[in-house]
Amino acid sequence: MPARGGRWAGFWEQRARQLQRQVQAKEERIVELETENAILHLKLAEYQEMTGKSSHAATRFCLLCDEQEGLQRGTRSSLAQLCRVIQKVKQDRKELRSSSLDLLRDCQGQQQDCGSEIVTAVQGAQRHHEAVLAWQSKAGCLEQSLRETTERYQLEKQKRKQLHNRLVELKGNIRVHCRIRPALPFDKESEDPLSQNSSVSAEVAHAVDDETVLVRWDRPGHPWINKTYNFERVYGPAESQRVVFEEVCPLLTSLLDGLISENPSRSPKVAVSVVEVYNNDIFDLLAKDSCAVTSGVKREVLTTKAGKKEIPSLTYESVHSTEEFLTLVDGRLRLRAKHATLVHADSSRSHLIITVTLTTAPSWDSPANRQSDVSLLKEPDCPSPRQPATGRRHSAAHRTSSWSPGAAPEGPTGHMEQVHAKLQLVDLAGSECAGVSGVTGAALRETSFINRSLAALADVLGALSERRGHVPYRNSKLTHLLQDVLGGDAKLLVILCVSPCRKHAAETLQSLGFGTRARQVQRGPARAGRVAPRTPR
């Protein structure tokens, strides 16, 4: 038994040790499992974290998928629409190709037709070019012919004018020129408001050509005026002072014939006198009073034994140059009677007469024993707007200038004789209406004398043109003083200066009528010159 018990004890002890080893192995295994479990828990946590992230990414992915799906749907719709458009474009292209082919065929046909027309046109252009060359050659010939004809015309015109002037000189007529001044700024400033608003032209006087003046004047309630006036020369507003001088120059030359031109070494003596006719009295503007101060001295006109009109004791001053002459005249112009009116700030109240006398002695047996007298007459001014007292005086709207070289019998041949040439410049005061000028008192009296003297001048011209037996020279001191000029054998040139403006139309017609009457005057033919009585040595 004990042996059996020993075996079982060893068995159980062995078994216990075996079980203990198993338990220990199990415990080790449990530890391993716990370690593995902990590791698994960690992995699980990691996996859970990764799962959360994956879920969020999956959500975003789903959203992206949804967006992608929407884009795909839009893309499919756009592709479908694009396909339809492509189909339409293909159809249009096909139609365009077809129409282009048709148009190309039409263009080719038209090109052929145009080519034929171009060939025809080129051939026609060549023919026209040849014709143009022929016409140009013909035009050149015509232009040359026109130039030659124009030159001949101008030459013949000049000859005609010279012959006409010679005829006028032989007949003793008064030559009349007319100058139309340009419109000035103050003409518009003082224009009648009714005429400013009217569609009618503000100018009534026009230079038709170099010999004709046309006046067109339409006044409400008055007959329409459409009248022409003919003179020896008409100057338009654009013509300069030089043009006027060139026309007057031949008359100046006639003044000096036989004096300076034939013997330049014998310079003539030049003397100047200046008088004014104021209130029908004659005043010597060169005379000096007892204090040697220049002042106007009253003079009278007397008739000499030879029938000539002279002013006894008239003062003459010698001049030796143009500057001296201009200075002398300018100083005496300041002494002239003037008065401001409503229409002119510096209105002349007298008639001014400047006389330049040239005297020289010709050589023995000289054929040039002669005299020529010249007078410059200025016809009445028309009203012009008042100017500032400090400004220069503007020329009046209407003014007439006359020029008269006269002649006298020749002296005996072979004696030393004195030869005279006389130039007279006459500036007439302007006629005026007292109601327009607004003058009163002494100025109104001046207006009365001015208008009466101008009326007397018109009466003298009328009597001369009608060849009356009696010419009323003595009705005015002005006409009495100018009797030798108006009724004698001197050359006389009248220059009318008129305004083109509508507001001066009445004065323009008055001046043109004056010039027409002057042009009708026929006097004795003007001789070449006269010899003054011999002066003893």
From TrEMBL:
Residues 364-374 have a biased composition (Polar residues). InterPro entries: Kinesin-like_fam, Kinesin_motor_CS, Kinesin_motor_dom, Kinesin_motor_dom_sf, P-loop_NTPase, Vik1/Cik1_MT-bd. Its main location: cytoplasm. Keywords: ATP-binding, Coiled coil, Cytoplasm, Cytoskeleton, Microtubule, Motor protein, Nucleotide-binding. Residues 9-50, 146-173 form a coiled coil. SMART domains: KISc (SM00129). Residues 364-415 are annotated as: Disordered. It is found in: Cytoplasm, Cytoskeleton. Residues 259-521 form the Kinesin motor domain. The keyword Cytoplasm applies. The keyword Magnesium does not apply. Belongs to the TRAFAC class myosin-kinesin ATPase superfamily. Kinesin family. This is Kinesin-like protein. It comes from Equus przewalskii (Przewalski's horse). The lineage of its organism: Eukaryota, Metazoa, Chordata, Craniata, Vertebrata. The gene is KIF25.
